[in-house]
Design a protein that fits this description.
- This protein is of the alpha+beta class.
- Helices cover about 30% and strands about 20% of the residues.
- It is built from 21 helices and 36 strands.
- The protein has a 9-stranded antiparallel β-sheet with strand order 6-7-8-9-18-13-12-11-16. Strands 1-3-4-10-17-14-15 form a 7-stranded antiparallel β-sheet, with no helix packed on it.
- Helix 7 packs across helix 8, helix 10 runs antiparallel to helix 12 and helix 12 packs antiparallel against helix 13.
- The N terminus is likely disordered.
C-alpha cells in the first residue's frame, strides 16, 4: 500500500511538472510556411532567450534572402545568427556556421544538406536536426548573447566546420593555438552608422588538423586571416563515429573584448544544462499566463503566440565588465551607457504588443522605455520603425502611444523632461533622412487639420488618422504633467482632426485635397493610395480614442453597426491599382472567407471590439470567436498574414483572455469573451487574476452574465488598476446572445468626445 501511495505521489508530481512546462505547447515553426505572395506569418524558428540580443535559426534561404527559413524548403545552408524582425525589413549582424564532410565546401549551394522536419527537434530554447548529406547531427542552445553548438560527426578523415561571415564587408582570423576563430560581419539592410560591425568569437574543443580562409569564393589554405567583401573560414579534423565537437560562440556590436565577455554567459554548461536553463527562462515568462480548459490545438496556438510576443523588441544592449548596461548606438555609432532595444515597428506593435508588456511584463518594458529615451538623445527622434536604427517604413507617430501608455500605467522613465520634449519634437518635425520617423506632412496637418491628398505625401489619410490619435496620447501626457493649459488644449483640439476626413456621403474616411474638397474619384475598395496597406473600409475605424465621435459622424448607433456589419457582408473584392499588383495583404484577405475583414494586417484588428462602444457586445463575442477559431492554428500556416513582431500574436493572447486594449493611453481594456474555461494571470506585483468561464465551449461563446470579485459586472470594459489588484472574474457563457447586457450608457468604454462634453 505504501509503495502504491508513493507511486501515486510520484505520478502526480510528474503530471504537475509536465503541466507546468509551457514550452511543450510552443511551436516555433508556426507561421513559417510563407512566401512573397501569401504570408501565413512570415516567421522563422527563433531559437532564443526571451528578448535576447541574438537569435539563431537554421537557414534554408539564400544569403541575403529575407525568407531565411521556409517550411517548404528541403535543404539547410547553415545555422545563422539573426536579428531579423521580418523578411520585409531583412537582417543585420549575421553570420553562419555549417558542418560538412568529404570536401571543404564553402559555397552555400554546395555545402547545403537535405533535411526533413521529421529529423528536426524545434523548441524556443533548443534546436536539433539531422543533416543527411553529411551524416551530421547539429544541436544548438543559446543564451541572450551567446550560443553553444554540438556537432555529432560520422567516422571521417575529412570533417569540417564552415564559418561564413557573409558579404558586403567581413573579416575572419583563425587562431589555431587557441582552437578559435574570430571575425566580424558588416552585413546589414539599412539603419546603421558607417562603423557598424558585429564581432564574433568561436571557440572549439578540438584541435584543428585543417585550416583555410576564404576570400570572395577563393580558398586560401596558407592564410589564416582575411578581410574582404565576403570572408569566411573552414577548419577541419579527423572524427570517429559519433564523435561530438562543440563550438562556443558569442558576438558583440561593441568589440572583440565585449564578445569575449558575452561568451561567459555560457559558463561551463553542457548542452543539456544550457537547454535546461533556456527552458526555465521561457517557462518563467510563459507561465505568467496559465490557461486551462481548452483543447490541445488551442494550448499550442496560445503559447506559440505568447512566445512570439516575447521576442521583440530585442535587447540591443550588452553588459560591461562591471555589470552595467552598455550599448553600441545604431543612431550615432558611439558606445554609450544604458539600455537600448530594437527590431520593432510601432505602427504594428503599439496596438497590442506593448500593452501586453505593460500589463504582464512591466519590468522589461521599463528597460525598453529607458532605451527609447536613449534613442531620442542619440538621434533627436523617438523611433517609429527600428532595425537596428531608424528605418523608412510605415506611417504614423506611434511612439507617442508606446511612451504614453507605459507612463500612464505606471512604467515611468527617470527623465520625464526628455520624454515630453521628444514627444513634442516628433509631433512637429520629420526626420531629415528617414521620412517615416517624426511626422511627414506635419506642416499641412498642423495648419489644415489633415495631410492633404494632393501634396505628394503618400498615404495621407492614414497619416492624418494616426496623427490625431497620437495627438490624443500627447494630450494625455500633457494633462498628467500639468503642462500649460494652452498646450493641453492644442493637442486636445488636434485629437479631433480625424473628423476632417469623414465623408458624409459614403460614411467613410476619404482623402481630402488642400482646397478642402475630397479626392475624386473615390473607391472604398482601393488599397493604398490615401491609406496604408488597406482601404477605407479598413482604416475608417482608426479612431481609437473616440469611437463615440465616429458613431456620431456616421449618424448614430444603428448606422454605425450597419457599417461594421457591412465589412463582413461585402465580398472580398478589391482595387489593387495603386500598387500595380495584388500585394500579399490583399490576397490574405480574399482567402479567409470573411468579406472585407482583413485581420492579416493591423489597421482593422481592433474593429470587432468597437461593437462594445455601440452597445452590442454580443456581435464582438461572435466575430472574435470566429477569428480565433478560423484564422489561427498552431501549424506552419498558423497565421492569416504577417505576424509582425508580436502584434498579431498579442491580439490572440489578449482576445483568448477575453479583453483587448483598443485604445492604448486609456486605462481600459475592452471586453470580448474568453476562449478558455480558466485563465490565471500572475502579475509582477504578486497578485493573481483568475478568469473563469466553466461552461465555455465551441457553442457557448456568448457572455450571459459576469461577476468581478463576486459583484455583478455589466460593463464592456475592465480597468487596468482593477486587474492589477487581482481577484476573480467569473463568466457564465451561453450559446445565445444576451441582448440586455452591456447596453447602457455607463457600460460603454471610453471615448474622448464624452470627456469633452
Amino acid at each position: 500500500m505504501k509503495k502504491l501511495f508513493l507511486l501515486i505521489c510520484a505520478f502526480s508530481c510528474t503530471l504537475f511538472a509536465h503541466a507546468n512546462d509551457w514550452t511543450q505547447y510552443v511551436n516555433p515553426l508556426m507561421g513559417s510556411q510563407s512566401s512573397y505572395e501569401l504570408s501565413t506569418g512570415n516567421t522563422y524558428p527563433a531559437i532564443a532567450r526571451p528578448w535576447g540580443m541574438n537569435f539563431w535559426t537554421p537557414q534554408t534561404g539564400k544569403m541575403g534572402d529575407g525568407w531565411q527559413y521556409t517550411y517548404t524548403a528541403n535543404k539547410i545552408r547553415g545555422f545563422k545568427q539573426t536579428h531579423q524582425p521580418s523578411p520585409w525589413i531583412n537582417d543585420y549582424g549575421k553570420f553562419s556556421i555549417m558542418p560538412v564532410v568529404g570536401k571543404p565546401e564553402f559555397d552555400e549551394e554546395k555545402r547545403a544538406s537535405w533535411f526533413a522536419h521529421k529529423g528536426e527537434t524545434v523548441t524556443p530554447y533548443y534546436y536539433k536536426v539531422y543533416l543527411a548529406e553529411h551524416d551530421v547531427i547539429t544541436e544548438m542552445s543559446p543564451t541572450e548573447r551567446a550560443v553553444l553548438f554540438r556537432f555529432t560527426f560520422p567516422e571521417n578523415d575529412h570533417s569540417y566546420i564552415v564559418v561564413d561571415a557573409f558579404d558586403k564587408g567581413s573579416y575572419v582570423k583563425i587562431i589555431p593555438e587557441e582552437h578559435k576563430i574570430i571575425g566580424y560581419t558588416t552585413r546589414n539592410s539599412g539603419g546603421v552608422p558607417e562603423n557598424f560591425k558585429s564581432y564574433f568569437i568561436i571557440e572549439f574543443d578540438k584541435p584543428f588538423t585543417y585550416r583555410a580562409t576564404v576570400s570572395n569564393g577563393t580558398l586560401q589554405e596558407t592564410l589564416t586571416e582575411q578581410a574582404s567583401n565576403h570572408a569566411g573560414a573552414i577548419i577541419g579534423f579527423k572524427t570517429s563515429k559519433g564523435e561530438k565537437v562543440h563550438a562556443r560562440i558569442a558576438s558583440s556590436f561593441i568589440s572583440f573584448e565585449q564578445a569575449a565577455l558575452n561568451l561567459k554567459e555560457l559558463g561551463n554548461d553542457s548542452m543539456e544544462q544550457l537547454a535546461g536553463k533556456g527552458k526555465e527562462a521561457w517557462n518563467r515568462v510563459l507561465g505568467k499566463i496559465e490557461v486551462e480548459g481548452g483543447n490541445l490545438d488551442q494550448y499550442r496556438t496560445f503559447y506559440s503566440c505568447l512566445y512570439r510576443s516575447l521576442l521583440f523588441p530585442r535587447k540591443f544592449y550588452e553588459v560591461d565588465i562591471n555589470g552595467n548596461p552598455v550599448h553600441y548606438s545604431p543612431y550615432n555609432g558611439q558606445v554609450l551607457p544604458g539600455y537600448m532595444f530594437t527590431d520593432t515597428g510601432f505602427w504594428d506593435t503599439f496596438r497590442g504588443l506593448f500593452p501586453l508588456l505593460n500589463l504582464v511584463y512591466p519590468s522589461i518594458n521599463k528597460e525598453i522605455q529607458e532605451g527609447l529615451i536613449n534613442t531620442y538623445k542619440e538621434s533627436g527622434f523617438f523611433p517609429e520603425w527600428a532595425s537596428p536604427g531608424h528605418r523608412d517604413c510605415m506611417v504614423g507617430n506611434n511612439s507617442a502611444s508606446v511612451l504614453a501608455d507605459a507612463y500612464l500605467k505606471g512604467i515611468r522613465v527617470d527623465d520625464i523632461k526628455t520624454l515630453y520634449e521628444g514627444l513634442v519634437k516628433g509631433a512637429n518635425h520629420v526626420h531629415p533622412q528617414v521620412s517615416s520617423t517624426g511626422r511627414l506632412g506635419h506642416e499641412y496637418y498642423n495648419k489644415l487639420g489633415y495631410v492633404p491628398y494632393d501634396v505628394n505625401v503618400n498615404e495621407n489619410a492614414a497619416r492624418t488618422l494616426e496623427y490625431a490619435y497620437n495627438d490624443w496620447c500627447i494630450y494625455q501626457i500633457a494633462k498628467e504633467l500639468k503642462r500649460p493649459k494652452k498646450e493641453i488644449n492644442l493637442y486636445a483640439k488636434r485629437a479631433m482632426n480625424y473628423k476632417n476626413l469623414f465623408d458624409k456621403e459614403s460614411k467613410l474616411m476619404r482623402g481630402r485635397n488642400q482646397d478642402g474638397t475630397f479626392q475624386s474619384p473615390f473607391s472604398p475598395l482601393k488599397w493604398g493610395d490615401a491609406f496604408t496597406e488597406g482601404n477605407s473600409w479598413h482604416y475608417t475605424w482608426s479612431v481609437f480614442h473616440d469611437p463615440q465621435g465616429l458613431i456620431d459622424l456616421m449618424g448614430g448607433t444603428e448606422s454605425f453597426v450597419t457599417m461594421m456589419d457591412s465589412v463582413f457582408a461585402v465580398p472580398p473584392v478589391f482595387d489593387e491599382s495603386y500598387y500595380g499588383q495584388v500585394i500579399h495583404e490583399i490576397r490574405e484577405m480574399t482567402v479567409m472567407n470573411m468579406g472585407n475583414y482583413a485581420h492579416g494586417n493591423q489597421p482593422i484588428q481592433h474593429m470587432i471590439y468597437l461593437y462594445d462602444y455601440a452597445g452590442q457586445p454580443w456581435k464582438a463575442q461572435y466575430w472574435l470567436r470566429q477569428v480565433m477559431d478560423r484564422m489561427y492554428t498552431p501549424g506552419p500556416d498558423g497565421y492569416c498574414g504577417d505576424e509582425d513582431n508580436g502584434q498579431t500574436s498579442a491580439w490572440y493572447v489578449f482576445s483568448a483572455l477575453g479583453f483587448y486594449p483598443v485604445c492604448p493611453g486609456t486605462d481600459e481594456y475592452v471586453m470580448g469573451a474568453p476562449l478558455f474555461k480558466k485563465a490565471t494571470v500572475h502579475f509582477e506585483n504578486g497578485n493573481n487574476l483568475i478568469i473563469e468561464a466553466p461552461n465555455n465551449s465551441p457553442q457557448n461563446f456568448y457572455i450571459n452574465s459576469m461577476s468581478f470579485n463576486g459583484e455583478a459586472y455589466t460593463r464592456n470594459y475592465l480597468r487596468h488598476a482593477d486587474l492589477l489588484k487581482g481577484g476573480a472574474i467569473r463568466i457564465e457563457m451561453n450559446n445565445q446572445p444576451n441582448l440586455y447586457r452591456g447596453v447602457k450608457a455607463e457600460d460603454l468604454p471610453y471615448s474622448f468626445s464624452k470627456e469633452q462634453q
